Amino acid sequence: MKKLLLIALVAGFAFTGISQNKPTKVELKKRAAEQTEQAPVAPRPMPEIDFDRSVTEDVNRIPIGTAHSQRSLRREEPHVIYYNPELDVISVTFTLDGETYGVANDDGTTGMFYSEDHGQTWQGPVVVSDNTADGITNYYPAGIIFNPEGNTSVADAYGVGQSTAVDWNYKVYGSAMLGGGDFTNYVWQDTDPNYTHNGYWNQYGLQQVNNEVRALNLKAAGDWSTFTEAEFELIVAELDGSEFVWDFSNTLEVDVDVKPEDGVIQWSGMFVGMDSGLEICWSADGETGYVWMNGVSTEAPTGYQPILYVTNDSGDSWDMIEYDLLDGDAQDFFYEFMNNASGTDFVIPRFKESTGVVDANGNLQMFAAVDSHSADVTVSPDSTGYGWTNTPGDLFSLTFSPDGLQDYMWIDSLNTMNVNDEEGSYAGNGWQHRLFAAKNASETDVFFTWTDTRTVPEGMLNIEPDIFGWSKCATQEGMHMESPVCFTEGTLYEKFYYYPAGAEWAYLNEDGKYTIPYIQGITPGEFASNTSATEDAITVNFITGIEFEPICTVGLGEMNVSSSIEVAQNTPNPFSTFTTVTINSASVANVVVEVSNLMGQSVYAINAGMINGTMNVEIPATDLQAGVYFYTVTIGNESVTKKMIVE
């Protein structure tokens, strides 16, 4: 199947059983040659906004608040937006602008805003960290809503913040109850001269797992850009009364190769433009987790790829996952998409950006932007780190289990390359393609979003970003979207989705689609006037309409409508006491009726017995809160789903 240019994407969703899409080698070599001929140039001015264009019905921007600067959203894949399924509440965390909020002072205060109506209105800010008394900053924040065990009140949940502070050797944590009170602030400074930047990467992986807060920091030894070793700092916190107790004792040394001539580790993350090569994610039960960084392992000269570890005991022990992209079927697959290495007959995949989630099978669903090394690292291993091609690359879906790489498939080509600091653009300050992964409550459907420029500008740089998406069923082979979709083409702010971020959990909306809570930072006016990455304020907006059709969640959205059974709409609807569903079946079989909430979680089920013709089934509202639900009638191997409303 030929690659489709992003500008030719259609807005519809289609599913296919094809698990791998390959262009011909002739087409790929032609495309690679065209890319090589175009040298990068400085970005063009801000995209022109057509204010007369109507905003599409589904995609709009809702202002949340004002951040002190783009430092709140600059870091690739920032974990600043969070969805808590238990409370059905969304939070957004950023460094507060001191001129806008009386509770903020300069760039030392981190605040959290939260929404109980899926982003339509916002409350806050709740101060979750404040370093102004110590005279230090709160840069690159992350934030979550922590719901204590047994709690059902949003006001009694905690906002938890994680960040770093200049001069990058501070790890900062803070917390406060959303309803007020119980504010605590923690600042750790590493005085070890070997770890002068222990805190720079302290904003990854923050999330609630069971009744713990888990987070990730990367400790790198040595001076800036010349690090000699690295280790994952796997951080855990527990709520003790009204305060969180943080434990930094669990570390994992990363087997990163070291250049023999200077003793510096070969790791793409040492360069600011490659901060995205670091991530951690967990299964819903907290037992299985994966952590990785993009580098060259000590095992063999491989080029930059994920150095990946897995745990199946909640992080008590970790094992390195071994896989080989330079041999066998994987090499044959990647050869179709990448430039060969220095004229050899093989390619060396170079991972530039990556993200991922753990699925229901305990596998890692990783999504990555990959191009190729131009140097032959198997002949000259020391060349890795400064001998790669400069092309946009391609997007891939990769499935890892503890036993290694299980599956891989091509998603799409990127139209543009990353915009780094040297281009001189304000928005290009650390700007990449912003890869985000999410999943539904059952961990079966996984979703992937990113930004790219649809109409390639001069220099092929990603300076007019729109938001794209693709999804797959992680538990049923071959079930995935045939082509990505561009969510923001035709919106008022098309080509202007700078500094976006997506949540890890998706919720099921009233239309039976999965919604990814999403934000975007900076307005056109701010873009045009701002000159400082650390001093000029930006507006943070919630983006509606980043939605996906269910793929493998049986029943929801009426995906599996049977022709041999008939299910009437429940009556009354809406209802407050009980409602009746009438069912007709041509066969004699057992009937099961299940009610699910908007997250896809089962909240009520009844075995209604055998049907022989027509049956009426009553559903009580006794244990159901007011809201939208789905009821699925299953008879044998067939099922029908419809929507109902409880008052």
Walk me through what this model shows.
With 647 residues, the protein is mainly β. It has a domain of 91 residues: Immunoglobulin-like. Helices cover 4% and strands 41% of the residues. The strands form 10 sheets. Strands 11, 12, 13, 14 and 15 form a 5-stranded antiparallel sheet that branches. Strands 35, 36, 37, 38 and 39 form a 5-stranded antiparallel sheet that branches. The longest helix is centred in the N-terminal third of the chain and has 13 residues. The chain is globular, with a radius of gyration of 25 Å.
Strand-helix topology:
Layout: E1 15-16, H1 25-37, E2 61-67, E3 81-84, E4 89-95, E5 109-115, E6 123-130, E7 139-146, E8 158-165, E9 170-177, E10 184-189, E11 204-209, E12 212-223, E13 226-240, E14 243-247, E15 251-253, E16 278-282, E17 289-295, E18 305-311, E19 319-320, H2 328-335, E20 349-358, E21 364-372, E22 394-401, E23 404-413, E24 436-439, E25 445-453, E26 465-473, E27 480-481, E28 485-486, E29 501-502, E30 507-508, E31 514-515, E32 518-521, H3 524-529, E33 538-543, E34 547-548, E35 565-567, E36 578-596, E37 602-620, E38 627-635, E39 638-646
Antiparallel strand pairs: 1-27, 2-33, 3-4, 4-5, 5-6, 7-8, 8-9, 9-10, 11-12, 12-13, 13-14, 13-15, 16-17, 17-18, 18-19, 20-21, 21-22, 22-23, 24-25, 25-26, 26-28, 29-32, 30-31, 31-34, 32-33, 35-36, 36-37, 36-38, 38-39
